[in-house]
């Protein structure tokens, strides 16, 4: 193979590697939470974002507490009344799922996050809880 073709091939491989590396970094930043988990506080959870405890992103205070709820596995097994007492009225209900809006919690703030709580078939006990990143159009 001629030397010029080898140099061109090498440069293309390096460029492809750098492009994949940059894309991976962006995806990681897009999906990671903006803040570490924070201890769940029922009073702070139920306050509007504007009056929430001071943080760099007051709208994401719920996101940090939602991470704590999920990491400590505190929601599965709770009944609907217990969940209402703990988290308040959900922003959306439907099909055995309750959704609580968290604000812009991903690393680069390109989309919103929701805490999605799924109930068992009878909507009596919480089966699972997850944080989902959604576009504003999807969530509202």
Write the layout of secondary structure elements.
Layout: H1 3-31, H2 42-46, H3 61-71, H4 80-87, E1 92-94, E2 97-103, E3 112-119, E4 126-134, H5 136-139
Antiparallel strand pairs: 1-2, 2-3, 3-4
Summed up, the helix count is: 5
Number of domains as seen in the coordinates:
2
**Any idea what the shape is?**
elongated
H/E element sequence? HHHHEEEEH
State Rg. 21 Å
Strand content: 15-25%
What is the strand tally? 4
CA-CA gap between termini: 57 Å
Low-confidence stretches: 51-56
Mean pLDDT: 78
Helix content: 40-55%
Class from secondary-structure proportions: alpha+beta
Spatial strand sequence of the major β-sheet: 1-2-3-4
CATH hierarchy, class of the largest domain = Alpha Beta
Largest sheet: 4 strands, antiparallel
Could you walk me through the main structural features you see in this protein, from its secondary elements to its overall organization?
This protein has helices spanning 3-31, 42-46, 61-71, 80-87, 136-139; strands at 92-94, 97-103, 112-119, 126-134. It is an alpha+beta fold. It has two domains: 1-31; 34-139, Beta-lactamase Inhibitory Protein, Chain:B, domain 1, CATH 3.30.1450. A four-stranded antiparallel sheet has the order 1-2-3-4.
């Amino acid at each position: 193979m001629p030397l010029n073709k080898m140099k061109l091939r090498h440069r293309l491989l390096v460029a492809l590697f750098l492009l994949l590396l940059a894309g991976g970094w962006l995806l990681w930043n897009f999906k990671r939470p903006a803040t570490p988990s924070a201890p769940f506080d029922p009073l702070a959870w139920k306050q509007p974002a504007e009056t929430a405890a001071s943080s760099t992103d007051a709208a994401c205070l719920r996101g940090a507490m939602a991470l704590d709820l999920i990491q400590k596995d505190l929601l599965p097994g709770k009944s609907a009344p217990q969940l209402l007492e703990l988290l308040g009225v959900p922003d959306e209900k439907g099909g055995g799922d309750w959704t609580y809006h968290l604000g812009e919690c991903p690393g680069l703030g390109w989309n919103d996050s929701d805490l999605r709580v799924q109930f068992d078939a009878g909507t009596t006990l919480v089966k699972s809880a997850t944080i989902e990143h959604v576009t504003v159009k999807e969530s509202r």
